[in-house]
Amino acid sequence: MLRSLLMTVCAVAPAVLPVQAVADTVTLRVLGQPSGSGLIAQQKELPYFEALAEKTGLDIKIEYLPVDVAGIPDTDGLRVLRSGLFDIVSIRGPQVSRDEPSVLGLDLIGQNTSFEAGRAHVAAFMPYVDSRLQSAFNAKLIGMWPAGPQVIFCKPEVNSLADLSGHKVRVGDQSAANFMAKLGATGISMPFGEVQQSLARGVVDCAITGPASANSGGWPEATTTVLPVPLQLAMNGYAINLRSLDKLSAEDQATLIAALEELTNEIWDFSEELYDDAMRCNTGATPCERGKPYSLTAAPVSDADLAAVSAAVTEISYPVWAEQCNAVAADCAETWQATVGALLAK
């Protein structure tokens, strides 16, 4: 009887072990950037997540889905994260700031007019935003990265910010809408995928985005001019549900976080490369290596326009944002002043 039982166990054991190994694999569902948003999503984010398990050696399975393919509004990124529907979300800063205003404090109009400034300001304020996401959305903010300097594309010819007066301008967030109002323009919010046709049909006269995104979206086909005054960097980032993170050991958590931090650093460098190349592509200059060549006119950038953008932080974007953020977290504006504000004052 004993011999028969041992033979049965030995016969069954090989079939049991693979089932246990499969059960140990942690599946992480990733909600990514929109599929048509540009080369950062296509050439950096998607390939990195597809290779993440092999790259890190972690026993994980990645299921990646672009936010537009998932049929989820990008404004719901933090809610989706909190619900646990997705484990990792590639959050779109301006869009999710409606649910968590502190995110917008990473990239107010006039705050990040260069990549160098953006890196410093994000590093200074991100710990606070992370603390807000952990308490309000049960999520850890791992890294933030820029889509690139946001500039203005117009169907009518423009030569300065003053020429925007009376025009309808597609904006990415309320900070930009407030700045447009100061210039006498009307800021209109709309999804990226609708902008090209809206420009062609005259629904909007101008629109704000990065040169690489504009190139990918075909905006130069419906516009004549680009005004390359950098307004902000359009920050995005990666956050993970804390319950999902706890499925991993402490060592594996550190490995995963380090990998996502590496991805954000790669995107910072790639974003800078894309900006320079896309500006050349959009205006018919060479070399144009990553985009489609167009023939937009690049309006001159005046000292007056640069000064107007820099002044917008203290005069327009910060006061409105501070009130909104303090309504959610009483220490929000105070923390921003002690971090980003202190750097801007230097």
From TrEMBL:
<keyword id="KW-0574">Periplasm</keyword>
<dbReference type="GO" id="GO:0042597">
    <property type="term" value="C:periplasmic space"/>
</dbReference>
<keyword id="KW-0732">Signal</keyword>
<dbReference type="GO" id="GO:0055085">
    <property type="term" value="P:transmembrane transport"/>
</dbReference>
<dbReference type="Pfam" id="PF03480">
    <property type="entry name" value="DctP"/>
</dbReference>
<feature type="signal peptide">
    <location>
        <begin position="1"/>
        <end position="23"/>
    </location>
</feature>
<dbReference type="InterPro" id="IPR018389">
    <property type="entry name" value="DctP_fam"/>
</dbReference>
<protein>
    <submittedName>
        <fullName>TRAP transporter substrate-binding protein</fullName>
    </submittedName>
</protein>
<dbReference type="InterPro" id="IPR038404">
    <property type="entry name" value="TRAP_DctP_sf"/>
</dbReference>
